[in-house]
What does this fold into?
Amino acid sequence: MFGPKPFGTWSNLSGKNCGKQYQFLKTGIRYRVIEEFYDFDHHLHPVDEVWTFLGYSFLPYDDGLSWFVSVDGVQEWHIRMKCSGEEQGKIVNSLKNYLREDLFA
It folds into this structure.
């Protein structure tokens, strides 16, 4: 997870491979990690990590998926994933096993 950066650094990206909703993740909603996982950069996202989803981008030529999140509501962070392969592909394809909406926000 890279950051923090000023709000809008990544979340204001636009284009055909960018968006505000990825699967069930919606902009402005807080999510909690319910099963730990490692992102593409080998950063651990432990159980009970909480962040607000800001948007995503996808790079089809390398199956690169980026989630833009905020942990403090002021700055943003970048979580890189790879949609193929055993590591992040497994996570991305079963995202509901790893994240849920944070009902205690």
Observations:
- The chain has a mean pLDDT of 93.
